[in-house]
Amino acid sequence: MKLSVSHHTTYRYDSPIRVAVQSLRITPSVFDGQSILDWEIAVEGGQKGAGFRDGAGDWIESWSLRGPADHVTVTVNGTVETTDLSGLLRGHREAVNPGVYLRDTPATRADAALSALARAVEATEPLARAHALSAAVADAIAYRPGATEAHTTAAEALALGEGVCQDHAHALIGAARVLGLPARYASGYLFASEDGSPHEAAHAWAEIRIEGLGWVGFDPANRCCPDDRYVRVGSGYDAHDAAPIRGIARGLGVERLEVTVAVQQAQQ
Amino acid sequence: MLSRTADNLFWIGRYMERAETSARLLEVGARIALLPSTGHGYRNEWDSLLQASGTAAGFAKKYGDPVQRNIESYLFFDRDNPSSVASCLERARENGRIVRTALTAQVWDALNTAFQQLRQLEREERSTVETGRLTEWTMRHAAQVRGAIDTTLLRNDGYDFLGLGYRLERADNTARLIDVKYYVLLPRADYVGTGLDSYQWTTLLRALSAHRAFHWAYGGEITPAKVAHFLIFNRQCPRSLLTSIAGAAAHLDHLATAYERVTPAQDAAESLRDEVAGLTVEQVFDEGMHEFLTRFIRQIDRIGAVVHETYLSGETR
Amino acid sequence: MTVSYFNEMYDGGAVRDLYAALEGWTRSMPAELRQMKQAEAEDLFRRIGITFAVYGEGGDPDRLIPFDMLPRVFSQTEWRRLERGIKQRARALNAFLVDVYGRGEIIRAGRIPAHLVYGNEAYEKAVTGFMPPKGVYSHVVGIDLVRTGPEDFFVLEDNCRTPSGVSYMLENREIMMRMFPALFRENRIEPVEAYPELLRRTLASVAPARCDGEPTVVILTPGHFNSAYYEHSFLADLMGVELVEGPDLFVESGLVWMRTTEGPKRVDVIYRRIDDAFLDPLCFRPESMLGVPGLMDVYRAGGVAICSAPGAGVADDKAVYTYVPEMIRFYLGEEPILQNVPTWQCARPDDRGHVLDNLGDLVVKEVHGSGGYGMLVGPKSTKAQIAAFADQIRENPGNYIAQPTLALSTCPSFVAEGVAPRHVDLRPYCLVGEKIELVPGGLTRVALTEGSLVVNSSQGGGVKDTWVLAE
Question: Which of A27, A45, A154, B306 is positioned for an S-S bond with A59, CB 3.0–4.6 A?
Fold first, then answer.
């Protein structure tokens, strides 16, 4: 599928900032299920800095902006060709040992309830286990936008029984790690097809390391594995670590965030 | 040089000069208090000193009535008073510690010794410490620091930032001291020409360590016009406004040469220097001494701000 | 239990040759002169501003580390062996770091458990797959050594991040030379003063490939409130480089710049004396004000060198320490010249059982601890202290390792009553860049309290000059 993405992020400040620095992990991954046709990042009034591919295979690009400025706008436009690989991240070059992703973070740490959820899974074969975990998380946390916020942890979302894709991913990661399966957070875009699937275009899911298969994506929010409607961008221990935009602005202003994302099927 | 280093050096100069001024103020106050009767008691004079150093509000909040002993504590020892000798020495030394690498061992030694001795002095029983001793002590250590700077420091940009701090602070402080005499101590014209008037002028000259120098330079009777000329225009007087601002302009000039770049800081200092040099005592009296001094102090402030923006903030590209 | 300690000065009743001159010097010094000299030394230390603030303890920020005027002496033969052992270790540690951020051969070969490395807090995912210039992660390796006999040296721990204390090595020597020039005329003592220049050269040698011309090196300090600030500024001064704080640096167009009075100046090599976590708020702790936003991106893209390289801490962890001899064999194909202290990992059930049964005889340390905090010295502890510590171990076994109480050697030291033996350790500083270098000497720390084995300055330890005699 050929998908075009348009993603605008604006930080507005009530008093001008002196300087802003941003580290952007916002370029689609390159693997057998995905290739970039065109992709352009721009920071209004900014200067492009270092760019490199990190050990996890993500392309990172940094930008800086000299003030005074009352807003910082990051604009991303591009087209990606995707293929359905049933969630497999085949052909993705990375150097990080999967063992690293057994580490907990505050957002993914399993409490007693999440550990219990993980241990209740009966399947023994790794892939089946991962599918079962994903289903269990989807059953335990109902999709409800606004129920949680950016800093909600997996344990909190589970207790609440509601959340969004970030909470689903965190819970699945935490549960997988309880069973000794390396797991990580994947961020990207989702093409919401005409059949009425309601989820956001800026999307997130989990990846679990399955011996023999490598990394496999699981999206509890949509009860499926990523297919050709998904554009994978970056990964990390959790949402914070995988954040597409990390930035810092020096100034006294209070920040307000505006985001618009659109994913469409490109014209053939 | 790092902008932050230049900033620290600049402030070492300012704090050392300010410490000296606070000690001089103490001296002025102590001398005026020795005058048997001024008709309205010494309280006003002490109060006016606090006004001059810009610390009256802070003092009133902490101590209430201006009692000599408290004022001495406030001007010398009190860390709540940012202009006290102790505050200034401590901050000068702290700035020195931060930029230890930009100083010679001798300059650091002088700063550090002053600070270590201050700590000893603070442990002494207050009643055994005479005001005169405090003033002398401050002058001696300030002189040691300045001496070490003059004899051991490389004449590079760091030296100019230090010197610039000293000169700008001195210009400001001399202006404030003249203002005390002219505006605060003796606001009423009917005192002019009385014994009290002349005693206060003498005291002011003493406070600026310029009493004997004045006599060498002018001789004869002390008149307001002569003193004003001496303290504002005389290039031989090391603390006059013109000497101070010309010194600041010279340091800025060195910086422009060293960096091969003229900035608004040079323009600001030179234009104030030329303006003061072009005035006469009569013109100053016509404008009003207080008005002139207020304007001068404001211009010094502005130069400080331009220097900060140009060299010390690190925002220059 | 009576333990006999190796005394570095006396062999039985006889004075070892090495110390013959010093013994005479000590004996001939009248008590009054000694006291006078001691006061003079203290005054010198205070005047140059070399003071020490104990982290988090408050109190006098200008406290001096006690200086013991009686030097410690090594022969040329003893030193050569130490030097070979230290360099060997520094090479192996760096090879390990390159490996674990690369292919992880040592783990694939099953020589070190994967979780000790990949599960380690100090392992930085952000630098995997990145090869720092010249393949060096740890540019200054501080190796803490103790001695238990004429030939027996043990490595207590490795410091691969930012070992401190080298300023004391240099100042102790400086002060001894100033106060007792005759000693230096009469004994042929190898100089240590080349250290700052060697450090500068080491740092310059790892400038990124993009840097053309003479590299600009800076030292990055957390600031003047840091207890080691004196050392940072001392080294900057002797190396002739700028001492910068985070806000003095900024990132633009893929490079790092410092703010100067003449505008931005490019920086090529950062010798950082702040922890990884504070380097870059965009990459690590977002609330850190000490670091430079965007620094890690520039580093990863090859625009600047950071020394020690972020992630180096995974090699000096006390659990990884156990495997250093294994690293030496694996990467260098050599046998370790310096021995490890036998170490029990409380994470292993068998080891834990042994540790809990023998707490009274062992020293127990936190895996990530330093500065002598959070440790238990069994033979010096009360029953209650031991019981409380046992609970801590049971609660979080992975956090502790244990070692036998070593019979640390003693050196004669000046104490109130005259001269008495006190326990010592040694920290030499090995420089790793294009070359591996070591100045002949190090920091000798001495436990000035009688019988004490804890030499940390935060726990009442002092320092003394360390001599290596020329042939």
Answer: A27
